[in-house]
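Margin note from the TA: students keep mixing up input and output lines. Inputs are the sequences; the output is the structure of the whole complex. Example:
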Amino acid sequence: MIDEEIQYDVKVINAFKRYGDHNVFNGLNMNVSSGSIYGLLGPSGCGKSTLLQCLIGIMELDSGQIDLKAKHLKDVGYMPQNLCLESTLTIKETFEYYGTIYNMDKKNINIKIDELNAFLQLPNLNSLIKDISGGQSRRVSLGVCLLHNPKLIILDEPTVGIDPLLRQEIWNGLTTMVEKHRKTIIITTHYIEEANLANCSFYLTLPVRLSYDYASSTLSPVVDLGPR
Ligand SMILES: Nc1ncnc2c1ncn2[C@@H]1O[C@H](COP(=O)(O)OP(=O)(O)OP(=O)(O)O)[C@@H](O)[C@H]1O
């Protein structure tokens, strides 16, 4: 397929970002095609979360350009690494709160709650956020990200602290969203094996000047390696 035929939901062009004198990325380029899962893999501290925060606009690049096809907030779902759930709400109230922010009606919110409950195997919906486990909170946070049915889904380590069987279910669910509903997913993870098992069109990318090739165990000065 020639490049002009591919539709991109996200393009990052020649991006630079530093904290003080620490360069996080230097001339990063990234193209995320519509209806794909794009994985950001890399060692702790290499800049994955920084890149996601720049994509959704809560942090700014020093220079370079980010083009998102999504024009409205409701077209994007973001799950941060540090969960920002209100501890005094129940799980159900949390979904109702975010659903209201996204202007969803009550009936629609309830339909999505049932769907997400089945997909993410949530605990009792009347449980307070402060009383549920870390893995359960992560699942609620993933649910909040998916609640309004966004086209572009940006997930920062969504499966950390979740048991292997459920992690696999979540990967299967994400794959279905891409294959059946043409969602576009950008995800950071340390679980490369699961991504492969889920048969995702997965990319190996470090948002720095080096990329790690798991097949040959080598680092190379390439940012975007393309589909495996
Ligand atoms: N607000 C900040 N001020 C200064 N340095 C920061 C800030 N946020 C991140 N950093 C540094 O920038 C680098 C990239 O951080 P980032 O959180 O993006 O990495 P990461 O790849 O997501 O790591 P992890 O896999 O551990 O989540 C790290 O060295 C981190 O210490």
